[in-house]
Amino acid sequence: MLRVENLHVSVEGTSIIKGLNLKIHRGEIHVIMGRNGAGKSTLANVVMGHPAYEITDGSIFFEGRPLEEMAVFERARAGMFLSFQYPAVIPGVQVGTFLKKSVASVRDDPPKGRVFRKELNAAMAQLEMDKSFLSRYVNDGFSGGEKKRLEMLQMLLLKPTLALLDETDSGLDIDALRIVAKGINQIAPEAGCLIITHYQRLLDHVKPHFVHAMIDGAIVKTGGPELALELEERGYDWLDAAA
Amino acid sequence: MNEEALEAVGDYRYGFHDPENATIRFDKGLSEQVVRDISELKNEPQWMTDIRIKAYRHFEERAMPDWGNCNLLDSINFENVTYFLRSSNKTEKNWDDVPDDIKNTFNRLGIPEAEQKWLGGVTAQYESEAVYHSIREDLEEQGVIFLDMDTGLKTHPELVKKFFGTVVPHSDNKFSALNTAVWSGGSFIYVPKGVSVEMPVQAYFRINAKNMGQFERTLIIADEGSTIHYVEGCTAPSYSTDSLHSAVVELIAMEGAKIRYSTVQNWSNNVYNLVTKRAVAHKNATVEWVDGNIGSKLTMKYPSVLLKGEGAHAEVISVAYAGEGQHQDAGAKVHHLAPNTTSNILSKSISKNGGRSSYRGMLQVMPKATGCRSKVVCDALILDDSSRSDTYPTMEIGNATADLEHEASVSKVSSDQLFYLMSRGLPEEEAMGLIVNGFFEPFTRELPMEYAVELNKLLELEMEGSIG
Ligand SMILES: Nc1ncnc2c1ncn2[C@@H]1O[C@H](COP(=O)(O)OP(=O)(O)OP(=O)(O)O)[C@@H](O)[C@H]1O
Ligand SMILES: [Mg+2]
To answer: How far is residue B407 from each of residues B331, B375, B378, B435, measured CA to CA in Å?
Structure first.
């Protein structure tokens, strides 16, 4: 469903992604690991359509359609979802209002009124989020872990077919990690998942089909779950030669 | 509505107009005779005529302000304004008795509906005078007086004489002089001791005619320990020629009283809105100005509070939206005249499509006013490079015991905020609308719910067709 071909991306003239290839099919869980600054978030942002990034070469297709012809909101409506590493703060906009608007824009048959409430309550219960979050402003004053839970809440409500999860596991306590993993496993069978992480520990709960190592803007090695263990143990230096 | 009118409406939803069916219409232009004619027509007591004449003479002599938007101020042609226009011979108590055109206009503005649902009383002013007025019986039984100002002067001359012009003297500025000379309509409210008016009362001001001048005069007196929430709204047709709205509002909060005065100003972009609003707060009284400026060509308005009694409190929350061809020069003034008085000023502005917003503030603490506290926060959001925002804060602090905070920020909508919302399925314009609504939220949440919803819709409309 997602096909990235020979992707080259630059920001403000600096080249960051340098010839990246990736294919994700429905039902597959992919993991990308790599050093700080390797370009992982850049990849996720570019796929979702962040205007700051320039694609200088190569292309990305979602369900056969070239992404360049789709605006950001159209990508969301087509089923793409990005869980942000650093979710933006939107002062003055209540979480409840925002979720309602978002669900109404993204889903084909948006649930209304009581049905929506019910679904929302269920999702929040699953994520062990207090109802008081609904009247708070989007990410305003949220702790790191709370922000990640709100990202997961959005994912559960928007029911994406492609989920890009950028360090959703960072900053989570052990219970939260388990809860987040449950959320991912819930949508995974029907979706493609791309999980960006630094730690093997999420993978105790979520079983990836593929693990990719990213060095300096390109995927240099792909393997199964055992690669994640190996990377955690050995670091990335041994792969530098391959880059 | 004719085609020309439809075309003029554009994005502004209230820009439609009715045929001009005046029962009395003065020729354009201003003179001492015009002032006398207004007073005579209204059959006023001599003392009011005298006040008007004195004010007119002051207006003639008084120079234009040499600050604010001088170019726009100087372009006002006082000779091209209609100073009095009566469109209905009577102020009705029943909407069915209001002339059809006018009634339909207020229906379209949703006034009768709001009245039924959540208001304690309504005054609807059309051009120079109130065409409809009503107050809930239970309020009347408690002794609450809520009238249009003309009727107030007729039925309670002693109260009016005692307080009229005591908070905003005619000589305060050129436009307060003009208003005092030619005032017509507005609200007169008296809340007796200890009475709490739970439901807001509302005044709605509508200009319909071209080149109209509307000069309403409002006086609210909240006696000891009473509370009242007054809400005002206003709109006008979009014409290619200018109209002038110049009101004076005086509030008096006696000991322990609380007055909240909420405004959603949404004039069409051909209206000069030059308004003087001031309140006096006596011992332990609270005055709150909740002031929203969305429309008009030029607004100059700085709701102010004189904290005259110990322990009095002022709250001014204002927002301004300046779009294409608009200048919102707004702000707040608080004068701490007594010890242990407190004030909070929050001002938020948005400029877009070449619009200009200015915050002009005055915070004064008198030497003998010890132990005062004040917080001033000004936030400006600029949506594009062609727009502008300025702040002109003035502080005069007369003693060292004052506890003051001042924060100011100017920001742009970040591409990360937009991207975040767009990635959740919102097109750019909707995302911008949501961010803008969020920015004004500290203001909106203070409004009655119905107003808040309306304001949010308005702002979302303003964001449409603006990005690309
Ligand atoms: N908008 C931007 N402007 C300037 N530089 C940027 C921008 N976005 C990313 N970069 C740079 O691109 C490089 C890759 O950043 P990216 O965020 O993709 O790394 P990452 O692999 O996600 O790292 P981490 O593990 O720390 O999250 C970094 O050097 C970063 O500073
Ligand atoms: Mg990152």
So the answer is: 14, 8, 6, 21
Q: Test B423 with A76 for CB contact under 8 angstroms.
A: yes
Distance from CA of A215 to the nearest CA of B (A): 26
pTM (predicted TM-score): 0.89
- Please give the tally of structural domains in chain B: 2
* B148 and B14 co-located in one domain: yes
Residue A209, pLDDT > 50, answer yes
- Give B162-205 as a DSSP string: HHTTTSS-GGGSHHHHHHHHH----EEEEE-TT-B--S-EEEEE
Contact A227, A214 (CB under 8 A): no
Residue B366 in any domain: the answer is no
Q: What percentage of residues in chain B have a pLDDT greater than 90? A: 88
Q: At residue B6, does pLDDT exceed 50?
A: no
Q: Same domain, yes or no, for B293 and B427?
A: no
For ligand 2, an ion, list residues with CB under 5 A: A 40-41, 85
The boundaries of the domain holding residue B173 are 3-301
pLDDT digit string (tens) for A53-103? 999 999 999 999 999 999 999 999 999 999 999 999 999 999 999 999 999
Q: Hey, which bits of B185-326 come out as E strands?
A: 187-191, 201-206, 213-214, 217-222, 227-235, 243-245, 248-253, 258-265, 271-281, 286-293, 298-301, 304-307, 313-322
B110-120: average pLDDT: 91
Ligand 1 neighbour A16 (Cβ under 6 A): yes
The CA distance from A130 to A124, in Å, is 7
Let me know: does B148 contact B202? Beta carbons within 8 Å: no
Top CATH class of A2-88+160-242 equals alpha beta
**Pick among A73, A82, A103 to test the B interface (most B CBs inside 10 A):** A73
Among all residues of chain A, which has the CA nearest to that of B426?
A73
8 Å CB contact of B425 and A158 = yes
* DSSP string of B250-262, one letter each residue: EEEE-TT-EEEEE
pLDDT band at B311 (very low <50, low <70, confident <90, very high): very high
Q: Around Cβ A197, how many Cβ atoms within 10 Å?
A: 23
Tell me the pLDDT tens digit for each residue of B155-191: 999 999 999 999 999 999 999 999 999 999 999 999 9
Burial of B338: CB neighbours in 10 Å, binned 0-12, 13-18, 19+: buried
Domain boundaries defined on chain A = 2-88+160-242, 90-140
pLDDT at residue B201 greater than cutoff 50 = yes
Give per-residue pLDDT as tens, B405-422: 999 999 999 999 999 999
The ligand 1 atom at the shortest distance from the C-alpha of residue A167 is 27
Segment B10-56, tens digit of pLDDT: 467 888 898 888 899 999 999 999 999 999 999 999 999 999 999 99
Residue in chain A nearest B441 by alpha carbon: A92
Task: Specify the residue with its C-alpha closest to ligand 1, atom 6.
Answer: A11
CB-facing half-sphere around the CA of A205: CA atoms within 13 A: 18
How far is B334 from chain A, CA to nearest CA, in Å? Answer: 26
Is the ipTM of this structure higher than 0.90?
yes
Interface of A with B in 50-79 (CB under 8 A): 50-52, 71-73, 75-77
| Token digits of residue B59 | 């207006």
Query: Which chain B residue has the Cα nearest residue A101?
Result: B426
A-B interface: how many C-beta pairs under 8 angstroms? 84
The phi and psi torsions of B407 (rounded to 5 degrees) equal: -130, 140
List of chain B residues whose C-beta atoms are within 8 Å of the C-beta of residue A159: none
Nearest CA to ligand 1 atom 29: A37
From chain B, the residues in CB contact with A71 under 8 A are 422, 427-428
